[in-house]
Design goal:
With 358 residues, this protein is an alpha+beta fold. Strands 2-3-1-9-10-11-8-12 form an eight-stranded mixed sheet, with helices on both faces. The chain has a three-stranded antiparallel sheet with strand order 4-5-6, with no helix packed on it. It has a three-stranded mixed sheet with strand order 7-14-13. A hairpin with a 5-residue loop joins strand 5 and strand 6. The radius of gyration is 22 Å and the shape is globular. The mean pLDDT is 95.
């Protein structure tokens, strides 16, 4: 999925250009990622590198001495191995990508409505036979009631429903009776919000324009932002440090206590950095195995799920969108078989776990 995502970003004009307009510019910066590993975790990095290469990704494994030679501004104490992405790996401007998708969709006839989903309407369809639903008791849904900003309600009928509500997908699933019904309907969509911080700091004399996104063994990451000695950084908290999701306020103590010491140790010049701004956002966190849930819901004939990417949705979005399109139009996957990511894996306790990711 990520290999296709990179190809999509490099050739975004072929996919999202609207007739009569300039191709979108999402500022794809293919500087690669540099994952660092200690002696204890080096075998995981090596295993991941081999798997990625077998699937078409291009990266190189670097010993401690090679890391220091290639990136002299790094402190490599305690580092056994590094994995550096060489091609089609980097970062983009997510807002520009979102607007490009929306603009193209509107040009193709999509209609956007701003409102809150209030509830679904269900109807008994006794001629439909579904697994784990008693014969004659299937209830389908093909109508949603939405409350508009002015307080009015609007009914939206549909032939197919895609639950792709990000961190709120679990709540939408509840409205579709997922979590309180028979069979697979007894399983909720295990997706909830998790708040994550991103900090922007300024540091003259820091690593240059070709700097990769560096991932420390602690999970702290940092990358350069633009040409004016600005950098972005962050780190997913440990379970005991998970912040409340009641608001999007930023915790600057978290930066001072958990992130800055690691940055200053790994890149000594960052001892003199100055934080300029910060923001918080929500991951659509899959509490089951931190991986995407993609595909049809087993208890509905017209409901598809695309959520739970746990922070990787941006890079996987093009492939997920294509996969959902194939299921809706063709009834099966035609390009990448994503059957392993189906909802049923929760019922069967088939975990899709990944190590050493950020």
């Amino acid at each position: 999925m990520s290999v296709f995502g990179a190809e999509f970003m490099r050739n975004i004009g072929d996919y999202l250009t609207v007739e009569g307009h300039e191709p979108p510019n999402v500022q794809f910066t293919p500087n690669g990622y540099l994952f660092l590993a200690t002696e204890k975790s080096a075998h995981i990095l090596e295993r991941n590198s081999k798997l990625q290469q077998s699937l078409g990704a291009k990266n190189e494994l670097l010993t401690q001495n090679k890391i220091k030679k290639k990136f002299p501004w790094l402190n490599v104490d305690g580092i056994e191995l590094g994995c550096h992405g060489l091609e089609n790996e980097g970062w983009i401007d997510p807002w520009s990508l979102l607007m490009a998708f929306k603009k193209k969709a509107i040009a193709l006839g999509a209609e956007y409505i701003t409102g809150d989903l209030d509830h679904f309407k269900f109807r008994r369809m006794s001629d439909i036979v579904m697994d784990n639903i008693p014969l004659g008791e299937y209830e389908g849904l093909n109508e949603a009631i939405v409350t508009l900003p002015d307080g009015q309600t609007e009914s939206i009928t549909f032939s197919q429903l895609v639950i792709a509500a990000g961190c709120r997908s679990g709540e939408v699933g509840q409205l579709a009776r997922m979590g309180n019904g028979p069979g697979f309907l007894g399983l909720p969509i295990p997706v909830e919000p998790r708040k994550r911080y991103v900090y922007c700091f300024h540091c003259p004399g820091g690593p240059g324009l070709k700097t990769p996104l560096v991932v420390d063994p602690s999970g702290t990451y940092v990358r350069r932002e633009g040409t004016s000695d600005n950098y972005l950084c962050g780190r997913s908290p440990d379970a005991e440090d998970e912040p409340s999701c009641e608001n999007l306020e930023v915790d600057y103590d978290y930066f001072n206590e958990k992130i800055w010491p690691t940055l200053a140790n790994r890149v000594p010049v960052f001892e003199s950095l100055k934080v300029k701004s910060a923001w918080a956002g929500y991951y659509d966190y899959n509490t089951f195995d931190k991986n995407a849930l993609i595909g049809p819901h087993p208890s509905y004939m017209n409901v598809l799920i695309a959520t739970g990417c746990s922070g990787h949705g941006l890079q996987q979005a093009p492939a997920i969108g294509r996969a959902i399109m194939e299921l809706m139009i063709d009834g099966h996957y035609k390009t990448i078989d994503l059957t392993r990511m189906q909802f049923e894996r929760i019922f069967h306790e088939e975990y899709l776990l990944e190590d050493n990711i950020v």
